[in-house]
Design goal:
Number of strands: 2
Order of helices and strands: HEEHHHHHH
Strand content: under 5%
Number of helices: 7
Helix content: 40-55%
Structural class: mainly alpha
Shape: elongated
């Protein structure tokens, strides 16, 4: 049993190495994420600084990591990726849990993705659910984690995520749902 387990582990490791060697040359450069310009609507203000009109399909108010309240950071991490601060971009435990659940039930109800994998998908990949896209997403997440800090990754995620009512990112959601800046949100609103 131990020998069979070790053989399976070795074959799995070899499979990962082969997949990486096949996929790595086609992965996009992560450098573009360091200077990303998110689409924001055109805003027209009065002379005294009041917002008169906003034009554009997407509502977005980009935030720096320092502008995101700590309880909001904690809420996103707790809801989306509880091991975000510890894993290298891929949560192996979460992927194994999702794979075992899929094997036992045949249903894809458990998610194995991380915040970094969502950033990889949202900025570089399609939403098409294929095995090859998931592999590219995982290797791209590992690459993103090597080149960006956890704060930068979380900032990209919080500014890019769709939160309903044409609000992209937490800054726009605070305005759309509560008519205020994220710094003025109560804990319940966050």
């Amino acid at each position: 049993v131990i020998a069979a387990g070790l053989a399976l582990f070795g074959l799995g490791g070899l499979g990962v190495v082969i997949a990486y060697l096949y996929v790595a040359p086609s992965l996009p450069s992560v450098a573009v994420l360091k200077d990303i310009r998110l689409q924001v609507p055109l805003r027209v203000y009065t002379r005294d600084g009041r917002l008169l009109a906003q034009f554009g399909e997407k509502r977005r108010i980009p935030l720096s990591f320092d502008q995101i309240p700590k309880p909001m950071v904690n809420a996103f991490v707790a809801a989306e990726d509880e091991h975000f601060w510890e894993h290298p971009g891929v949560d192996v435990e979460g992927v194994l849990r999702a794979a075992i659940h899929l094997a036992l039930t045949g249903e894809r109800t458990q998610g194995g993705g991380t915040i970094t994998m969502q950033v990889a998908r949202d900025f570089f990949l399609t939403r098409k659910k294929t095995f090859s896209r998931k592999i590219r997403e995982a290797f791209l997440a590992l690459k993103i984690e090597r080149e960006l800090s956890k704060q930068d990754i979380l900032t990209l995620y919080i500014n890019k995520i769709y939160l309903g009512s044409r609000a992209y990112g937490a800054g726009a959601a605070a305005q759309v749902y509560y008519g205020t800046d994220v710094s003025h949100l109560s804990l319940a609103q966050i």
